[in-house]
Amino acid sequence: MASGSAVTITGGTNMTQVVAGDVIDDADFNNARTNVNTLLSGAADVTLGTFTVANTYGWNQGGAGVSAASAGSTVQDTGAGGFKDLQDDVQAMCAFLGQSVRTGVGSDVTTSTTIAAATWANLMLNVKDCWDNRFVPASRTAATDGSTTRTASWTNTLTQETTWTFASEGALRAYFNGGGAVGVSASRSGGSSNTQNTQWTNKLSGISDVWLYHNTTAASAGTSAGIGLYELTTAFQQIMIYYGGTSPYTSDYIQVNAKVNSTTNPTVITLQTKLRDEGDNVLDEAVDGTLTINARRLQPNANGSGFSFATPTDGTGTISGS
User: How far is the C-alpha of 273 from the C-alpha of 64, rounded, in Å?
Assistant: First the structure.
């Protein structure tokens, strides 16, 4: 059995590196294969409300492309316990995450290859690279999937809700486990030439996209509550707020809240956008022109891995208030 350094996988299966002179055990293959299978299989079914990184994984890509090895069998290039098949999975994961393929791992073994101990060890290290960076794809594509507008002037509070619906809870979890995000953005144009309108135009531009990730919320400006998908409940929670104005507009704010339809079987995420004019048309003017709120999606890219993640369906509610 392998006798090299331990490779710790927090939340997964620990591995031991192979060194020259070791007698290869089935576990030396299977432990690495188990971690690969865990990442490529369905998302872990954890209850939302808290986020624990160790038990959050699974991209729903069909599982490992190789079966486990059995004791006493010969390590081959393909088939059960096939080293090349395991290499293919690791190469795909590295491509998806933008992780460098370590020496030997990128060169597929054949029936005439003698597998070096260093290649075994590096494959395990690549599995750890992917495990530790599993939420961060090499790239994502931002898209606007829908929008809603309002042209009536307002002086108090506007509220709008955007929903994101997934075909299943597994699809939802896998999307976020793979680094996907959903969000909103807003803009204001036209209307009166006054400082109030300019302040709101600048404020909406400043916060830009508000993105809900698996473990946090991010935007170009404002204060994040540090809440992500896995910390949502069935009641709205504030995930982002932004003031960013000059007197007498310092109390005006943009607030984004979020909730899910279920903490055990979530399929729908609702983002609620609130725009508050604290001046109430007393200290400042009404806000007018065209207000647009967009449903924004940040989709993980395959990057040559062959992976794919379900695209949620958006629903953009009307902007209400006065």
Answer: 41
Q: SS3 of 126, please? A: helix
Domain range for 55 is 6-132
Q: Is 149 helix (H, G, I), strand (E, B) or coil?
A: strand
Gap between the Cα atoms of 318 and 316, Å rounded:
7
Amino acid at 129: D
What is the distance between the alpha carbons of residues 287 and 299, in angstroms, rounded to a whole number? 34
The b-or-e profile of 70-80 (16+ CB within 10 A means b, else e) is eeeeeeebbee
pLDDT digits (tens, 9 = 90+) for 54-66: 999 999 999 999 9
**Which residues are paired to 165 by β-bridges?**
268, 313
240 and 295 fall within a common domain: yes
Packing angle, helices 83-97 and 26-40, rounded to 10: 40
Residue at token pair 């009641």 = 235
Question: Is the full-model pTM beyond 0.90?
Answer: yes
Condensed to tens digits (0 to 9), the pLDDT of residues 244-285 reads 888 888 999 999 999 999 999 999 999 999 999 986 555 668
Residues 23 and 97 in one domain: yes
Q: Residue 238 pairs with which residues in a beta bridge? A: 257
With contact defined as beta carbons under 8 Å apart, do 291 and 245 qualify?
no
CA distances to 28, 83, 106 from 123, in Å = 11, 10, 9
SS3 89: helix
